[in-house]
Amino acid sequence: QVQFVESGGGLVQPGGSLRLSCVVSGNTFRLHSMGWYRQSPGKERELVADITMVAGRTVYLDSVKGRFTISRDIMKQTVDLQMNSLSPEDTAVYYCHAQPEVGPESWGQGTQVTVSS
Q1: Which of 18, 28, 107, 112 is the most buried (most CB within 10 A)?
Q2: Separation of alpha carbons 116 and 102, rounded Å
Q3: Collapsing DSSP states into helix, strand and coil, what is residue 16?
Q4: Spatial separation of the C-alpha atoms in residues 51 and 72, rounded to whole Å
């Protein structure tokens, strides 16, 4: 069984910054990639950013490019998401995602990010 520890969510004013962190542990195969998705009320879950663990290739949602940066630690199986210049449109529950090289994907429990004055 895979365990996730997500941290870093909270309330921030528009223009502010937050850093999300996710640690994966437990019965995990080597990870192909890790990333962050988000979901706000009435909307589908969407990919925010993803990074491959070995090569470090990244993918970003268009609306966060230039504001968010994803990074990873291969040995620790962690992924961080630095979020700058946050706007109310970034308000959502953010979910950590892990895709092993073999086997099914896994999801964290989610952490709330609220951007409001």
Answers
A1: 18
A2: 40
A3: coil
A4: 7
